[in-house]
Amino acid sequence: MNDPAPAAPVLTVVMPAFNEESILADSVAEVCGGLRDRGASFEVLVVENGSTDDTRRVAAALPARHPEVRVESLREADYGAALRHGLLAARGNVVVNFDTDYFDLDFLDVAVRRVAADDGPAIVVGSKRAPGSDDNRAAIRRIVTFVFSTILKIGFGLRVSDTHGMKAMRRADVVAHARECKLGRDLFDTELILRAERAGRRTDEIPVAVEERRPARTSILRRIPRTLTGLVRLRLALRGTHR
C-alpha cells in the first residue's frame, strides 16, 4: 500500500536569489529555523535567477540541510520574473515574498494572520512609508521611494503606500493577476498589486523596519531612468483596466 502524499504546506516563502553566494545559506537557515520554531507548515522556494557567482551551487545544497526548501533556477537575471515564477509555483495557500538580504519573521507573523483570515485582505504589504515604519536606508533612496510611491498614488490610483519589498498574499486571489502581468525586473510586484486593486481585491499594509544585509547592487542614477521607462510601460500594460 502506497504511503499518502504529504499534505501541501499552508505557507510558501519565495526568496529570489541573484549573486547571493555570501548570504543565501545563512538567510535560508534563519527563515527555516524561525518558521520551525513557530510550528508552521511551510516551504521555502528559492528562485535562483541568472547568477554569475556560486549562488546556484549554494542553492542546490540547501534541500539536503533543510527539507522544507525547494530550489528552481531561471536563466536570466530578473527579480520580477523570479517573484512571478515563485508565486505561480508555490504550493502554499499563503505566499510571502522575502529578499535574501531583507526579511522579517515578525512581519510574516502579522501579515499571514491577516491574509489567512476569512475576511482578510488579498495582499498585505510591508511598507517602508507607512506611519510607524523605520527606514534606515540612505536619504537618497528614501527620497526616490517617496517620489515613486507618490507617482503611483496620484497617477495610477495605488491604495497602499509601497509596493516593493516584503508582501503576504492569498495565492488563490492573486495568481490569475500574476499570470496577466507583463512587466518584470523592478515592476512586477507593482503591476501585480495594481491589477489586484483594480479587480476589487482588498490590500493592506504594515509598517516595517528596513535593515538591509548588504549594500544595494544598482545605483540610484542607473535605476531612475529605468524606472521612468518602466512607468510608461506600466501605463500601457494596465490600459483597459479600471481604477
* CATH topology title: Spore Coat Polysaccharide Biosynthesis Protein SpsA, Chain A
The order of strands across the largest sheet is 3-2-1-4-7-5-8
Radius of gyration: 17 Å
Q: What is the succession of H and E elements?
A: EHEHEHEHEEHEHHEEH
- Strands, total number: 9
What does this structure look like?
- 43% of the residues lie in helices and 18% in strands.
- The mean pLDDT is 89.
- The protein is globular and about 45 Å long.
- The chain has a 7-stranded mixed beta sheet, sandwiched between helices. A two-stranded parallel sheet has the order 6-9.
- Helix 6 (171-180) crosses helix 7 (188-198).
- The protein has one domain: Spore Coat Polysaccharide Biosynthesis Protein SpsA, Chain A, CATH 3.90.550.
- The protein is an alpha/beta fold and 243 residues long.
- The protein has helices spanning 24-37, 55-65, 79-89, 105-116, 139-156, 171-180, 188-198, 220-237; strands at residues 11-17, 42-49, 69-74, 94-97, 123-127, 134-135, 167-170, 203-207, 209-210.
- Strand 1, helix 1 and strand 2 (42-49) form a beta-alpha-beta unit.
- The protein has 8 helices and 9 strands.
Topology:
Layout: E1 11-17, H1 24-37, E2 42-49, H2 55-65, E3 69-74, H3 79-89, E4 94-97, H4 105-116, E5 123-127, E6 134-135, H5 139-156, E7 167-170, H6 171-180, H7 188-198, E8 203-207, E9 209-210, H8 220-237
Parallel strand pairs: 1-2, 1-4, 2-3, 5-8, 6-9
Antiparallel strand pairs: 4-7, 5-7
Helix pairs in contact: 6-7
